[in-house]
Amino acid sequence: MTENCESRFAAYRGAHVLITGGVGLIGSALARRLAALGADVLLVDSMVSEAGGNFANIADFRDRVRLNIADIRDGAALRHLLAGQDFLFDLAGQTSHLDSMNAPEHDLAVNCTAQLQLLELCRAVAPAVKIVHAGTRQIYGRPRYLPVDEAHPLRPADVNGVNKMAGEAYHLLFHDVYGIDTRSLRLTNVYGPGMRIKDARQNFLGIWLRRSLEGEAFEVWGGEQRRELLYVDDAVEAFLRAALSRDTAGLALNVGGDAPYTLLALADALVRASDGSARFEQREFPAERKAIDIGDFVTDDRRFRGLTGWAPRTALDDGLGRSLDYYRRHMASYL
Amino acid sequence: MTENCESRFAAYRGAHVLITGGVGLIGSALARRLAALGADVLLVDSMVSEAGGNFANIADFRDRVRLNIADIRDGAALRHLLAGQDFLFDLAGQTSHLDSMNAPEHDLAVNCTAQLQLLELCRAVAPAVKIVHAGTRQIYGRPRYLPVDEAHPLRPADVNGVNKMAGEAYHLLFHDVYGIDTRSLRLTNVYGPGMRIKDARQNFLGIWLRRSLEGEAFEVWGGEQRRELLYVDDAVEAFLRAALSRDTAGLALNVGGDAPYTLLALADALVRASDGSARFEQREFPAERKAIDIGDFVTDDRRFRGLTGWAPRTALDDGLGRSLDYYRRHMASYL
Predict the structure, then answer these.
(1) Residues of chain B positioned with their CB less than 8 A from the CB of A159
(2) What is the pTM of this model?
(3) What is the ipTM of this complex?
(4) Range of the domain at B73
(5) Can you give the CATH number for the domain in which A8 is found?
(6) Which residue of B has its CA nearest to A109?
(7) Residue B200 within any structural domain of the chain
(8) What is the pLDDT of residues A52-105, one digit of tens each?
(9) How many domains does chain A have?
């Protein structure tokens, strides 16, 4: 970590930081970094089996943070946990598009109802807390133009998208009406060590990694759709900068990757990163997936970059290589 | 009713029609019209005291429709009531902006969660039902440009707006993914005989009418903000046309009034309609209202007019006069 970087984040030294979804992919990487910056970090995670929480994600720094297992729907618990916090990184959520269609009311309870309750609790017990909400580019739905900027209409293509849209809108509203210091980052697909690889619930790359490590071909559905990937450490940097940027308060801001790639190009990159041991097969899109697929997606995140100076720093091949290395060593904890 | 008009709505003769919020302002007027068109009409209403339902609204045609008192959150009841329906006019909701800030989770349960459940039930027991959802211009929030068309960004200014935005988004999603024949009308302020006048929960005009009829001055908060009013019979016509228009399926469409008026101009019109007996006082905006007020609002509803041929036909002075007449005769039932 450079001196420059340390001084940028001096405000986190000794600060009280709550991370919901703190044992998941982004939450755990954020916690590791915040602990290194000297923050007093409290992780909240439901540890439900369908979500991203995995104790292996925090094993290397478990003694430097506090952990409270609780569902974010548990308002009584959250009231206690929120009191006295300086920062709230609001990462808990249901992420699976397909699960959201099969169990829409569960998705609503977690991604929408619980967000409203959390903000009401912040008003009550932590009105000065600085919040960053993990939003998603999913709320735009199928793009009408590319690249997609923040003015693009919102037409979610699945129940998860509707609920994430509403969850984000509460944040912006509580900023506008009550002066809560909150913003939302509309993230593209985040990947890296700590992601769920058991299945595709977090994103498609999880299952690709798993199959590659097990010596099996992974499936590429379609192939020509363009997608972006953001390495988890770059996502962490975006969250850390956003929470300290007054200019981002009340805004919903896109956070994309370094560049868009076709799924085929991503598959080729994974084969390269595995030194050729990974292989894949192209497949037709399954019907239930096709109904909620959004085609090409390319993010315009110039506004966020301009306001915070953030830019992704991890090249795709490097990020994929680090991910493969990690799972080669820790595979058993993620199956 | 003209012959032309009857033939336009021939599809309603003998059709099974469910109206949620059926004892409220729009619901009851729609029911009266549908009963006259020969439809088999079932009204569902929670009859909770804060909402718009009032038995006086249906007294003149009570024997020509069926009524089932139930909350739209009651999924078991709705499952039975939805089965076999050809049309669903989805008007039930919490409408008070201020209540939505004071009891946000109740607003969410009614305007968001219940909508998702209703659509899931439609998929299960009435997949071919034609739906019109009562949306609201409130979801746009404070306008960034005027007039506001459907491409205007959504930035709800209160909790009610967030939940109505999500409730509408479910409808569009269920069209896109499951082929449900549904659309949403983003309505401006609707007024007329049958509206709630006990307080301002439906819109500001209710309390203006009440004070005028009681011989007291009504209060105009601010005065220069431009607003639109849509007479209830014109709103009914919009719903009837929308449900029969295939071209509107999957769309959210603005429905405005005949013209925008400043609140002062509306107040003057009410004084005129009362033959000078009404009077008003201008007041500063109360603080808790100002935080969620949206300034001027002017609707661009050319898309809906173009698709359906609809236009409002009731002039403001006429609509206000009819409203005053109605409440002079039925005042006791509305206090």
Answers:
(1) 116, 170, 173
(2) 0.92
(3) 0.89
(4) 3-195+229-257+298-313
(5) 3.40.50.720
(6) B113
(7) no
(8) 999 999 999 999 999 999 999 999 999 999 999 999 999 999 988 889 999 999
(9) 1
